[in-house]
Amino acid sequence: MPIRLIALDLDGTLLNPRGQISERNRLAIDAARQQGVQVAAVTGRRFRDSRPVALELGLDVPVISHNGALTKHARTLETVAVLPLPLSAALKVMAVGKAFGADALVSDDHDGLGVLIYDHVSGDNWPLREYIRWAKQVHGEEEGGESVRKVDSLEAYLDHDPIHLAFSGPCGRMEELEHLLRSELMSEVKIFSTVYAEKDFTLLDILNPSASKGAGVAAAATELDLTPEEIMAIGDNYNDLEMLLFAGRGVVMANAPLSLREKEGLHPTASNSEDGVALAIEQFILSRH
After folding, report:
1. Tally of domains within the chain
2. How large is the average pLDDT for residues 253-276?
C-alpha cells in the first residue's frame, strides 16, 4: 500500500545539527508532496517553536506539537486538538520537582502562539539556561520577549491546566528525576525523555496521560481517512517511539540512541547530518512511483 502521509519529527530528524533543512531534504519533501503525499510536522517542540518550520515548508497538515498535546494549523492558528495537563497533576509534578531541586518550565497559551513560563534557573543548570536562550533567540528579539516569560512563582502562576510541564538538565540527574516522577505520579501523567547524550542534556516533558506523538498521528490519520499502513513516520528519539510503532513504516535515524535503533520492525536511515529524511523518502516513496 503506498504511503500517503509522512509524520516527521523535527530536531535530530528533519533538521540538521545546525537546525536547518538541507536542500536534499527539502527537494525530497517537495517531490513527495507533488505526488500527493501529505507531510505533518510531529514534534516535542512547542507550537511557537515548530510553526516556522511548517511555514517554511508550506505544510497544510496541522502541526502536532508538544509531543501530541497540541495540534494546530500553522497559518491560521486554529486549534484542532488540545490535551492539557490537569492542574492537580501539574501541581504534584511541581512539588516533586521542587523537592528534588529541579528547575521547571510551564508551556501555556494553547489558543495563541504559546508562551514558556519559568521562575528561576539554578546556577549550575547550564542546559536550561541555554534552552531558554535558544527559545528567545529562535523568534527574534521582539517576539522572543513574548514567547518566554519569567514570573516570581510558578506555583502562584498555575491556576489553570497548562499544556505541559518540563524539566531539563544533565542526563544523569534528569534520569533520577524521571524515576522519581514515575514512582510518585504513576498513571496521572505521561513522561517523555528526550536525550542528547553528546551534549549531556535531557529534556523531560510531562503531559496529559493521553498525549503522545503516536496518539496525535492516529488522530490525524482518522481525520485524513488513512490507515497506519499508509503512514511513514521518521524520528530519532524516545518520544518518537509510539508514532514509529503506530505507522506502517517506522524509520529511525542513524543518530538515534542504540536502543531505539535496535527496536524490531523499524527501518534504518542515515543521520540528520547525512540527509536521512531524504533517503527514506527516496527509498520508500519516490522510487515506487
Report:
1. 2
2. 97
